[in-house]
């Protein structure tokens, strides 16, 4: 599967929806306030671009389909990582463990070398993965869809750390909600 250029996508329904500007809508601040209350898993999306690693923190990673195995994430068009993602064929997503809030903060910081402090390993195919993450997926970009001021990047999962995750069964995922990191534990089970 190859990435389909955005200009070839049928976005007529989305374009009609966005054209309905006379309808009342939430302000960006109200929209963000709603999603601050929605907990999300934390991941680092990383790739090799022009001989160097590029990566960023994402709380927008979603499962799309199990057969075929598809996932997606969103990225602002203004992100410093967008030029690399726009050219990428493959990338890796590391799902962070609850002790990796410092890793998440580092990969969310602009203007620094996010890989300088180490804590990552390049896969044989070149994509960086975060050491100690709960798990990772390597995927091939199948589509980049412009949506609002962002892009929805869809991937076909090619490989995972599933064989290694049994050793990490005692860890819980890093969760982000209301601008604060959280961990899930036995005491949070309903």
Automatic annotation (TrEMBL):
Domain of life the protein comes from: Bacteria
UniProt cross-references to Pfam families, sorted A to Z: Flavin_Reduct
Keywords: Oxidoreductase
InterPro entries (alphabetical): Flavin_Rdtase-like_dom, NADH-dep_flavin_reductase, Split_barrel_FMN-bd
Domain Flavin reductase like, first and last residues per copy: 35-183
GO-annotated molecular function: FMN binding; riboflavin reductase (NADPH) activity
GO biological process, one term: pyrimidine nucleobase catabolic process
Name the record gives this protein: Flavin-dependent reductase
Organism: Promicromonospora citrea
């Amino acid at each position: 599967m190859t990435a389909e250029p955005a200009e070839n996508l049928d976005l007529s329904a989305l374009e009609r929806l966005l054209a309905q500007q006379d309808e009342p809508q939430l302000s960006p601040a109200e929209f963000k306030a709603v999603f601050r209350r929605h907990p999300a898993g934390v991941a680092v999306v990383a790739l090799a671009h022009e001989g160097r690693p590029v990566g960023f923190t994402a709380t927008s990673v979603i499962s799309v389909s199990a057969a075929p195995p598809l996932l997606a994430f969103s990225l602002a068009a203004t992100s410093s990582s967008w030029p690399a993602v726009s050219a990428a064929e493959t990338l890796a997503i590391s799902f962070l463990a609850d002790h990796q809030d410092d890793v998440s903060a580092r990969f969310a910081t602009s203007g620094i070398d996010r890989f300088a402090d180490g804590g990552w390993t390049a896969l044989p195919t070149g994509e960086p993965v975060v050491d100690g993450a709960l798990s990772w997926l390597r995927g091939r970009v199948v589509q980049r869809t412009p949506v609002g001021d962002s892009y929805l990047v869809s991937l076909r999962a090619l490989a995972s750390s599933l064989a290694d995750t049994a050793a990490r069964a005692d860890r819980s995922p890093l969760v982000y909600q209301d601008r604060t990191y959280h961990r899930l534990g036995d005491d949070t089970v309903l």
